[in-house]
Amino acid sequence: MNDATLLAQPSPPRYLMCRPQYFAVTYRINPWMDPKTWADSGAELHVTAVRQWAGLYSALLGNGAGIELIEPEPGLPDLVFTANAAVVLDRKVLLTRFRHAERQGEQPLLLAGFKALQARGLIDEIVEMPEGAVLEGAGDCIWDRKRGLFWLGNGFRSEPAARPVIEKQFGVPCVPLELADPNFYHLDTCFCALPSGDVIYYPAAFTSGALDCIHNHIAPVQRIALDRADASHFAANAVCLGGNIVMSSCSTMLRRRLEERGLKVVKAPLHAFLRSGGSACCLTLRLDHLSDAALMPALTSNAARTTAEASG
Ligand code: ARG
Q1: Which of 5, 185, 236, 268 pairs with 251 at a CA distance of 20 to 30 A?
Q2: Among candidates 108, 152, 157, 122, which has minimal Cα distance to 288?
Q3: Is 281 considered catalytic here?
Q4: Per the domain annotation, does 235 fall within a domain?
Q5: CATH number for the domain that contains residue 30
Q6: Which residue in 283, 295, 303 sits closest to 145, CA to CA?
Q7: How confident is the model at residue 42 (pLDDT cuts 50, 70, 90)?
């Protein structure tokens, strides 16, 4: 590995998370959410959620992640899903604008949380979404490092109107993908772009137009299509760091396909969060994704240094 490659792989990967202290299912904004069953379970599901979140937290830490936390808040049970907080690239934060009133109360807290990260020098800039364009953060807007573009889910939460905002703010292309199945209402519930360029996805979650688009961009050898069972356990809602992929559940067949690609599957069961329509990926927000344009000065100056060292 040369110096340039080292610089191109900032480490450790840094995530934003939120403790599940007030996590619960108290309203229904997706088909997975059933407030009555949650309430009927007494404290049991909450205890499980706390334990499972801690399992994810240690799995990420144990695999080399750095983790920042925002403070949980009573009455905002979904704040725990930090993937929905913002889209972050090149140290710039594009704050979320939620579709549902149930989650809009998170917005001021997220702004305050990002300001605190800015004050600590972890990010440079915070931008708000214009009114009228819904964008539910990285849950619907997935950075594809290999292709240098964002994939934008729409149809249930985020809107196509967010696309020009994303392209303008980050200066990279954004490819819209229309979702077709309400059970897979955020793009990260059915699509995961791995650093290698491979993509895990659930074909039935997309409209035929979106599926054509995926197939036009992604070569057959790079497609890892999920069956309904893996998809329904949110296997696509995974966190890939280094050579590891952290997910709640994985069939033997899927594990084999991931291992063939050199990935080690780390299981962190998160069933309590599936009751809210979430899993590993949406409990995290990657804070340190960089585009080629941002990496370029580092690569260029590093190459210059290497040349100078070689000749000097
Ligand atoms: N209950 C939350 C909602 O419906 C779950 C969000 C999961 N987040 C995600 N990025 N998939 O908004």
Answers
A1: 185
A2: 122
A3: no
A4: yes
A5: 3.75.10.10
A6: 295
A7: confident
Give the model's pLDDT for residue 3.
41
State both tokens at 90.
């090149």
What pTM value is reported for the model? 0.93
User: What is residue 33's predicted lDDT score, i.e. its pLDDT?
Assistant: 98
Q: How many CB atoms lie within 10 A of CB 119?
A: 9
In-domain check, residue 239:
yes
Indicate whether 120 belongs to any domain.
Answer: yes
Strands 244-247, 264-267: pairing kind = parallel
Q: How far is the CA of 256 from the centre of ligand 1 (A)?
A: 28
What is each CA distance from 206 to 21, 28, 76, 176, 180, in whole angstroms? 34, 22, 30, 11, 5
- In tens, the pLDDT along 193-219 reads 999 999 999 999 999 999 999 999 999
Rounded mean pLDDT, 216-235: 98
Range of the domain at 178: 12-292
Is residue 130 in some structural domain?
A: yes
Per-residue confidence (pLDDT) for residue 6, from 0 to 100: 42
On the question of pLDDT at 4 being above 90, the answer is no
* Helices of type H across the chain: 3-8, 35-40, 44-62, 101-104, 106-119, 162-170, 208-217, 228-232, 252-260, 271-274, 292-311
C-alpha closest to that of 159 among 99, 199, 223, 81: 99
Q: Which residues line ligand 1 (CB under 6 A)?
A: 29-30, 33, 78, 81, 83-84, 103, 139, 186, 188-189, 276-278, 282
Average pLDDT, the chain: 93
Domains in the chain: how many in total? 1
Q: Binning pLDDT at 50, 70 and 90, where does residue 242 land?
A: confident
Distance from Cα 258 to the centre of ligand 1, integer Å: 25
